[in-house]
């Protein structure tokens, strides 16, 4: 070990920095504030340990170049067992890590590099406990994102970041185009609001469990139509299904005035997103898209099709309703008018992640939705739907695209299947 006498390590916290010998300027910029703070307060020491299999002259010369960034440098750390230990016990995989040792040589963090990258000197004393404390702050979201170096810079600059993903390429193109247009809008630019976007590739949604739970709880994570998360710097602002968020952006004209009048962008965005989900006449369609990972169902809604959603415990009635609905779809008048009718049965049987059946999931999400304080008209429609839950017979809902058209129990909903009655909803 060189660069400084090793006596300086005794009775101090030590940060072991493992990397290959070629350290990027980006990594240096992350560690530099920590190095500078250490020189001022003398509370800990930093040791750089390059992981290199074969030490040659050029490698040692590079060490001389990098010595200026670290107080200590361990040369010729090439022991097979040592490298194996660092890789197996501390998870070194060619990317930089910082292992934190207490003054008693106890491991206080197996890799504090990411928390240093996110919080800088605020990460001191670089322990697991300190990281947990930082992650529980309102800016926890920033600590979950390490899939794009640009995002970390944007976080530090406090920009609004739209992070999005999904398998629908067409939706991704539409969304990116809409965000870019929003960023160039004169109201946004006049207000000096900086908006950027980052697409997350498949299989890379961030490391933090809370981000995974956030996406999963809102059923965006695996949706065909895409998902979106908006943050301001490291603070999570909002998130949602790609379809609903896209609508919020498409209708910017309806909430532009609030931004122009000085209301913070994140408040305007969240309020209008809530308006779309809870108070508009299309609430039911967005509710179904938001809470059900059913690609074909989302497509039917977007295409404006007539959809009968039905369920219940009376199997005989279910079969009867299905047959009558299918007969309606084949009626010559319906076919001549090229009206598309789809059926969607919400079963009570356990299916996949739905322990209480898809119907049980429907009622559960609907009851949660009612707690979000929708407007009076929507609340009345929700209460009417929930009233069918405890009936031991059948129930059905008819929607046309996003709009809820009719609903009823097994007795009165059958009338809607009569041609003359159904014409009212065309």
Supply the CATH class of the largest domain.
Alpha Beta
What's the main sheet like?
Answer: 5 strands, mixed
Q: Using only CA atoms, what is the Rg? A: 29 Å
Mean pLDDT: 80
Low-confidence stretches: 203-210, 217-222
Distance between the termini: 81 Å
Overall number of domains: 3
Summary of the model, kept short:
This protein has 426 residues and is of the alpha/beta class. The chain is 44% helix and 17% strand. It folds into three domains: 6-135, Glutaredoxin; 143-278, Glutaredoxin; 293-425, Glutaredoxin, CATH 3.40.30.
Properties at a glance:
Glutaredoxin, 426 residues, 3 domains, five-stranded mixed β-sheet, 19 helices, alpha/beta, four-stranded mixed β-sheet
Topology:
Elements: E1 13-19, H1 25-41, E2 44-50, H2 57-66, E3 72-73, H3 80-90, E4 97-101, E5 107-109, H4 113-119, H5 128-135, H6 149-157, E6 160-165, H7 169-184, H8 186-190, E7 195-199, H9 209-217, E8 227-232, E9 235-241, H10 242-250, H11 256-260, H12 265-278, H13 283-291, H14 295-302, E10 306-312, H15 315-329, H16 332-336, E11 341-345, H17 357-370, H18 376-386, E12 394-400, E13 403-409, H19 419-422
Helix pairs in contact: 7-10, 10-12, 17-18
